[in-house]
Design a protein that fits this description.
- The complex is a heterodimer of chains A (284) and B (296).
- With 284 residues, chain A is α/β, with parallel strands linked by helices.
- Chain A folds into 2 domains: 214 residues, Rossmann fold (3-Layer(aba) Sandwich), CATH 3.40.50.300; 60 residues, 2-Layer Sandwich (Alpha-Beta Plaits), CATH 3.30.70.20.
- Chain A contains 11 helices and 11 strands.
- In chain A, α1 packs across α11 and α5 runs parallel beside α6.
- Chain A is elongated and about 70 Å long.
- Chain B has 296 residues and is of the alpha/beta class.
- Chain B has 2 domains: 234 residues, P-loop containing nucleotide triphosphate hydrolases (Rossmann fold, 3-Layer(aba) Sandwich), CATH 3.40.50; 51 residues, Alpha-Beta Plaits.
- In chain B, the strands form 2 sheets. In chain B, strands 3-6-7-2-8-1-9-10-11 form a 9-stranded mixed β-sheet, sandwiched between helices. A two-stranded antiparallel ribbon of chain B has the order 4-5.
- In chain B, α8 links the parallel β10 and β11.
- Chains A and B meet through α4, α6, α7 and α9 of A and α4, α6, α7 and α9 of B.
Amino acid sequence: MIISIASGKGGTGKTTVATNLAVSVDGPVQLLDCDVEEPNAHLFIRPSIRETKTVTTPVPEIDLEKCNQCKKCAEICRFRAIAVLGDTVLTFPELCHSCGGCMAVCPEGAITEKGRELGVLEAGAMNGVSFVHGRLRVGEAMSPPLIRAVRDRTWADGLTLIDAPPGTSCPVIAAMKDTDFVLLVTEPTPFGLHDLQLAVEAVKILDIPMGLMINRADVGDDHVRDYARAEGLPILMEIPFDRQIAESYSRGDMFALAFPEWKARFREMIEKIETMTGKGAGAQ
Amino acid sequence: MKELVILSGKGGTGKTSLTAAFATLASGCLLCDADVDAADLHLLMQPVIRKRTEFQGGGVAVIDPQRCTSCGTCVDLCRWSAIGPDVVVDEIACEGCGVCVDFCPEQAIDFPIKTCGQWFISDTRCGPMVHARLGIAEENSGKLVTLVRQQARQLAEERGLDLILTDGPPGVGCPVIASVGGATSVVIVTEPTVSGIHDMARAIELCRHFKVPVMVCINKFDLNPDNSTTIERMAREGGLPVVGRVPFDQAFTRAMVQGKTLLEFDGNGSAASVLRQVWAAIMNTPAMTAGQQTAA
C-alpha cells in the first residue's frame, strides 16, 4: 500500500506526520521524501545513506557534421529549447522537457541525447525504516523527473509512505499520482482551509481515496471541520498544539518515539486507512 | 522602484502573515502574490478584483477517435505514458510537448491551447494588488509568476508607487526561481527548527546563485533559542543582515481568522511593536537604501 502525505499549504506538518508514521508502524516500511526542493524527512529519520546517485534528464546534443540546418528540430520543439541560427544550432538545456521530439524528427540522425543533472537521489535506512529522498540542485527548476526517480524506488509490496511537496501543481501531482491513499495534513485556520480545498480538488482529479489529519487542532476556528463534514472527508487523527511537540520538532525529534501513546495513535490511523482502502500493509 | 520578495524555503514559517503586516506598515506599496499555486495573501487583504485575465499555458493533446486508426505511433513516442492502450490522452500526464501531434500519420491529434489559470489586478486597503490563481494540477507556474511580477512592475509605474512587496512561494524550484530574478532584495522568513534552518540555507544559496541580496528574519524565535542563535551565526558568517526576531504569538492566528493583518488586529501588542522594528530594519538595509540619495 502506498500512502502519500500532502497538504496544499506548506508547514502544516506533512513531514512530522510522515516521519512519525514511519517509526510507529510494526514491520518494514519505506519512506520516500518527494519534496525534492526542500527535503526534510532525513533531519528526523537520520538514516545512514548507503547510496548516492546523480539523477539526470536527457537533453539533445547536436552533431553539426551531420546537421544540414533543416530546422525540423526547432519547429517541433514547443519549449523553444532549440534554435537554428545560420549554420549553427543552439540548444537551451534548461528549457528542454526531454520529450525526445527533436531526436525523433531529425532526418539526418544528427541528434543524440546526453544527461543534464537535476539533483541527487540518496537512499539508506534507519532501524526498520527504508529511506529514499531526492535533493534538487539549487538553481534547477525542473523537479518532476527527480520526483519520479524517487517514486521509481517504491516497493512492489509492503507499506510505502510518500512525503509530498506543498502546493497543487505538477510536483505534487508527480508525488501523489498512482498512490492508494492521500492523507491530507491541514491546520484549522483560514490559510489551512483554503489550501486544503485546493488539495482536495487535486486529489479528486487523480481519483484517489483521501482522509484528513488536523494538526494544531485547537487553534484557529471550526471551518475545516465544517468543510470536512460537508465533503464527507473522514478526519483520521487530530494533534493539538502542544509546545512540547513543537519544541521536539524544532530539535529534529519524533514525538511518537518520546510519547508511546502517540505511537499507538499513529498505528491506529494506519489501521483505519487499511480498512478504508481494503488494503493491508502487505497487499499491493 | 524597489521590489522586496518574501521567501522562506520551508512552507508555513509565516511569509504571508509578515508580508501582510509589512503592507500595513509601508506607506504606499503595491502587493504582488507570487505564490500562484497556493495563494493565501488575498485571505488577509480581501482584494476587490478590478481586472481578470485568463492565463494561457501550453497545448494538450486530444485524439479524435474518428480519424485515429490505433496505429500506436503516439503511444510509442510519448515519454510520459500519457496515451493509454485505448488511445485516450491522460490530460494530467500530458506534458504538452506535441510530439504525438506532429508524428500522427492520420493527423488525428489536435493540440488546443489550455487556459491554465487567471491573474487579477485588484485594489486593497493597503494599495493595489496583482495576484493569480494557477489551475489545479496545472503546469507553467514559473511562467505565471513571471507574468504576475511583470504586471506588478507595470502597475506600480503607472500608479507612481516605488515599492513592490512580493509574497513568494515555498521551496527553491521553478516558481521560486521566477520570483527571485531581478528583485531588489529578498527577506527569508525562517523559524528555529532543523527544517527551517536546512531550507533557509538552500533558499540563501538560490538567491546567491541569482545574485540577489538577502536578509534574514527569524519568526517564532523563542520556540528554540539555541537554533535561533545558530541562524544568527549562519547569517553573520554569510554577511547577511538579520532584520529581526519575532516571538511565537497566537495573535497571528487570531488575526488571520479575522482576515486582518497583525497590526490591524492588535496594533499595540508586543508582536506589533517587534514588527515595526523589523520593518524599519528591512528598509534600512544597504540593499533597500541603495540609490535613494541619488533618486532624491
